[in-house]
Design a protein that fits this description.
Layout: H1 5-21, H2 23-66, H3 70-75, H4 83-89, H5 94-109, H6 113-121, H7 128-144, H8 148-160, H9 168-181, H10 185-198, H11 205-215
Helix pairs in contact: 2-5, 4-5, 5-6, 5-7, 6-7, 7-8, 8-9, 9-10, 10-11
């Protein structure tokens, strides 16, 4: 075709006919592509603005949280929104995600256990230590809500999240205690056994051995 001018001319005519006959379809496809590109740039620009707003708001809220001014941390100080607003309005950003954790801890300290659960359930982290801590805090909230079985399951989840000798034994102790409260003696014994067998050097071993012996009497 490249060496034959007539063949090339025929192909160009065919292409022109295709464009002419499918003009509306092609324009529609082009419009979709342009809208997708523009929308993508617009979304990332908006996301960047949201992230900046969330980080600015978080700065004052975390200052109040660290000063133990929990009400100010949650509700804001009149100049900047509090953790509750950051978590609710900017939850899709990293700062908004972190606000859920801070708000969960603050709610737990204030005795608002259901709110604490809601915030902590919306939090997630790639840092296994922080995520395990969030599971354990959710367990604390469930225990305060008189749901020891749910609390025990969350403590177990915290212990099993990247299980390690430094934190897992303490979470297993919490699990065992919650299972005892729930009248689940077998479950409590299993938790104590895990400490004794999997973490023999942990400082919780002596207590676990003592509590296990008490349950077996």
């Amino acid at each position: 075709m490249l060496e034959d001018p007539d063949a090339l001319a025929a192909r160009l005519v065919e292409s022109e006919d295709f464009v002419r006959n499918n003009r509306n379809l092609l324009l529609g496809i082009l419009a979709v592509i342009v809208a997708a590109v523009v929308g993508g740039f617009g979304y990332y620009a908006w996301r960047g603005q949201q992230t900046q707003k969330a980080q600015t708001a978080m700065f004052r809220a975390v200052d109040a949280w660290e000063a133990d001014s929990l009400k100010k941390a949650m509700k804001g100080d009149g100049r900047a929104p509090g953790l509750a607003t950051v978590a609710n309005e900017y939850g899709s950003t990293k700062a908004g995600n972190l606000a859920n954790f801070y708000a969960g801890v603050a709610s737990l300290k204030e005795g608002k256990y259901k709110d604490a659960l809601d915030y902590l359930e919306d939090f997630s982290s790639d840092d296994y230590l922080v995520q395990s801590r969030a599971y354990a805090l959710m367990g604390d909230a469930q225990l305060e809500l008189n749901k020891p079985k749910e609390a025990a399951d969350l403590y177990a989840k915290a212990a099993d999240n990247k299980a390690n000798e430094y934190f897992s034994p303490s979470y297993l102790m919490k699990e065992a205690t919650a299972r005892e409260i729930a009248k689940d003696t077998d479950g409590a014994l299993k938790a104590y056994d895990r400490i004794l067998n999997e973490y023999p050097a942990a400082q919780e071993v002596a207590e676990a051995r003592q509590f296990k012996a008490r349950l077996q009497k």
